[in-house]
C-alpha cells in the first residue's frame, strides 16, 4: 500500500468522524450548541435544483420584503449558484418577484436582459462569453438560470416578465457608447459636448485615471454633472423621442459612469476611506426599486457585499441597504466546510491559473463551520435570530466565533480566510457541508 494511499485513507477516516455527531468527542458546551442547531435547522437535500416548493416554505415570510439578498462564501461553488437559481424561481412563481440583480456590470446586464425579455435562450451562451467581465458568472449554473428566465418570459405580457440587472460599477466598457448612441437618437443640441466628455470617460476609466490629480478629477466630475444637468433640462424632449423608461435607464447609465470613475480613481489613489463600490451597488439596487416601480428584487452577491457590515465611516452594500430599507431588506448567507471550488490559485504572492481548488481540511475548531459540520446534515437552512435566542449561542457569538469565507482567490491556507462572525450580518444561513466547483463555460 503506497504512502499516498495511506495518508488519504487516514484523512478520510478522520474527516468522516466529524459526520456522525453521536461519535464525536465534543466538550459539553460545543455539544449543547450542536444539539440546539440540530433541533432548529431545516434539512435540505444537496441538489438545490431538486428542492420542492415545500422545502422552501420557510422563505415565505421573507417574500414580503422588497429586497432579498443571497450571498456566497466562495465565487465558485455550484451548490450556492444552483440554490440561488432555485430560490429565485420559487420567489418568482410563488411570490411575484420580478428582478434578479447581480454583482455584475450594469452595462453588460442591459445586453443580457434584452435577450431575457425576448425569451432568446439561444443567445445567452454567446452573450455571456462576449459581454460578461467576471469569470465568476461565466458558468453553466448561471447560464441555466438565465436560460430559465428566457423561457419563463416566453408568451408573457411585459408586466409579468422577469429581468436580469447588474448593480456593479467597476468598468466603463459599454456605458459611454450606450449613452452616446442614445443621445444621438434623441437629437439633443448638446451632442458635441456629450461626445467629448463621454469619450474622455471611456479612455480615462480604462487607465484608472492614473494621470489625474484630485483637482483634475474633480473638474472631470463637474463636466459629467453638467451633462446630467443638460439631460434634465431636455428631459421632456428626450422622452418624447424615446420613452420615459428608456430615458431613466440612460440617465442611470450616465450616473454609473460617474460611479465607475470614482471607484477606479479612489482605488488607485487610495485617497478615500469610503467603500465607493458597495455604496454605489446599494444605490443602484435602490434605484431598481424605483425603476421597476417597487417590483420585488432578489440580489446575488458575495456574503460580504450583502451582509450588514459596518466599519468606520463606511460599510458593505448590505449595510447601506439596511439603513435605507430597514426591515424591507433581508439576507441569506451561504457557508460550507470542505470540497472543491472554482478560484484563482496563489503561490506565495503570485496568482496562478483559474481552475478547481480543493479545501480538504477539517474546519477550524469552534468555528461556525465546524459546529455546522458536527450536525451531520449535508445541507440545511437556519435562522440566526432563532439561535441567538438560546443563551449558549448568544454567549458563543459574543465571544467572537469565527467563520470561513473567501472570494475569487484561494491560496491553500484556509486559516487566512477565517474572520469573526456576527449574527447581525445575515438573517438566515444556508449551509452545504460539501462544495462542488462551479463549471466554467
Biggest β-sheet description: 10 strands, mixed
| CATH-defined superfamily of the largest domain | EreA-like (biosynthetic domain)
- Give the overall average pLDDT: 94
Spatial gap, N to C terminus: 39 Å
Strand content: 15-25%
Structural class per helix/strand content?
A: alpha/beta
Rg, rounded, reads: 23 Å
* Total domain count: 2
Helix content: 40-55%
SSE map:
Blueprint: H1 3-16, H2 28-40, E1 42-43, E2 67-70, H3 78-95, E3 99-105, H4 106-118, H5 124-131, H6 140-153, E4 163-168, H7 175-186, H8 191-206, H9 214-233, H10 235-241, H11 244-269, H12 276-291, E5 297-300, H13 303-306, E6 310-311, E7 314-315, H14 317-325, E8 329-347, E9 350-359, H15 368-374, E10 379-383, H16 384-388, H17 391-398, E11 402-404, E12 409-410, E13 418-420, E14 428-435
Helix pairs in contact: 3-6, 4-5, 4-6, 7-8, 7-11, 8-9, 9-11, 10-11, 11-12, 12-14
Key phrases:
single chain; 441 residues; alpha/beta; 2 domains; ten-stranded mixed β-sheet; two-stranded antiparallel ribbon; 48% helix
Please, could you describe this protein's structure?
- With 441 residues, the protein is an alpha/beta fold.
- The chain folds into 2 domains: 3-97 and 296-435, EreA-like (biosynthetic domain) (EreA/ChaN-like  fold); 175-272, no CATH class.
- The chain has helices at residues 3-16, 28-40, 78-95, 106-118, 124-131, 140-153, 175-186, 191-206, 214-233, 235-241, 244-269, 276-291, 303-306, 317-325, 368-374, 384-388, 391-398; strands at 42-43, 67-70, 99-105, 163-168, 297-300, 310-311, 314-315, 329-347, 350-359, 379-383, 402-404, 409-410, 418-420, 428-435.
- α11 packs antiparallel against α12 (276-291).
- The longest helix is centred in the middle third of the chain and has 26 residues, at 244-269.
Amino acid at each position: 500500500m503506497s504512502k499516498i494511499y495511506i495518508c488519504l485513507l487516514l484523512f478520510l477516516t478522520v474527516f468522516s468522524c466529524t459526520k456522525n455527531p453521536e461519535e464525536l468527542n465534543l466538550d459539553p458546551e460545543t455539544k449543547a450548541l450542536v444539539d440546539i442547531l440540530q433541533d432548529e435547522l431545516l434539512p435540505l437535500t444537496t441538489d438545490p435544483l431538486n428542492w420542492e416548493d415545500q422545502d422552501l416554505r420557510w422563505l415565505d415570510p421573507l417574500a414580503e420584503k422588497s429586497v432579498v439578498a443571497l450571498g456566497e462564501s466562495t465565487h465558485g461553488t455550484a451548490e450556492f449558484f444552483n440554490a440561488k437559481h432555485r430560490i429565485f424561481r420559487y420567489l418568482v412563481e410563488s411570490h411575484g418577484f420580478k428582478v434578479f440583480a447581480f454583482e455584475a456590470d450594469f452595462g453588460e446586464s442591459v445586453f443580457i436582459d434584452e435577450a431575457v425579455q425576448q425569451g432568446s435562450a439561444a443567445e445567452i451562451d454567446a452573450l455571456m462569453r462576449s459581454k460578461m467581465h467576471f469569470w465568476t458568472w461565466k458558468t453553466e449554473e448561471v447560464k441555466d438560470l438565465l436560460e430559465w428566465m428566457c423561457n419563463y418570459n416566453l408568451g408573457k405580457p411585459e408586466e409579468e416578465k422577469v429581468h436580469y440587472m447588474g448593480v456593479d460599477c467597476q468598468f466603463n466598457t459599454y456605458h459611454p457608447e450606450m449613452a452616446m448612441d442614445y443621445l444621438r437618437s434623441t437629437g439633443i443640441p448638446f451632442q458635441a459636448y456629450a461626445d467629448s466628455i463621454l469619450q474622455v470617460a471611456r479612455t480615462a476609466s480604462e487607465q484608472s485615471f492614473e494621470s489625474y490629480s484630485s483637482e483634475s478629477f474633480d473638474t472631470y466630475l463637474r463636466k459629467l454633472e453638467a451633462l446630467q444637468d443638460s439631460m434634465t433640462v431636455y428631459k421632456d424632449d428626450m422622452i418624447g423621442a424615446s420613452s420615459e423608461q428608456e430615458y431613466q435607464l440612460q440617465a442611470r447609465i450616465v450616473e454609473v459612469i460617474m460611479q465607475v470613475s470614482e471607484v477606479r480613481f479612489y482605488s488607485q489613489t487610495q485617497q478615500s476611506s469610503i467603500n465607493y463600490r458597495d455604496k454605489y451597488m446599494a444605490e443602484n439596487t435602490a434605484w431598481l426599486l424605483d425603476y421597476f416601480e417597487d417590483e420585488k428584487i432578489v440580489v446575488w452577491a458575495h456574503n460580504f457585499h450583502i451582509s450588514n457590515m459596518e466599519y468606520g465611516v463606511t460599510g458593505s452594500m448590505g449595510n447601506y441597504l439596511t439603513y435605507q430599507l430597514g426591515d424591507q431588506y433581508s439576507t441569506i448567507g451561504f457557508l460550507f466546510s470542505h470540497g472543491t471550488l472554482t478560484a484563482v490559485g496563489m503561490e506565495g504572492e503570485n496568482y496562478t491559473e483559474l481552475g478547481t481548488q480543493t479545501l480538504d481540511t477539517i474546519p477550524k475548531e469552534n468555528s461556525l463551520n465546524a459546529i455546522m459540520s458536527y450536525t451531520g446534515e449535508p445541507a440545511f437552512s437556519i435562522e440566526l435570530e432563532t439561535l441567538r435566542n438560546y443563551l449558549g449561542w448568544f454567549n458563543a457569538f459574543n465571544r467572537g466565533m469565527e467563520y470561513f469565507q473567501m472570494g475569487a482567490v484561494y491560496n491553500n491556507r484556509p486559516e487566512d480566510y477565517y474572520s469573526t462572525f456576527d449574527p447581525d450580518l445575515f438573517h438566515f444561513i444556508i449551509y452545504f457541508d460539501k462544495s462542488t466547483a462551479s463549471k466554467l463555460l
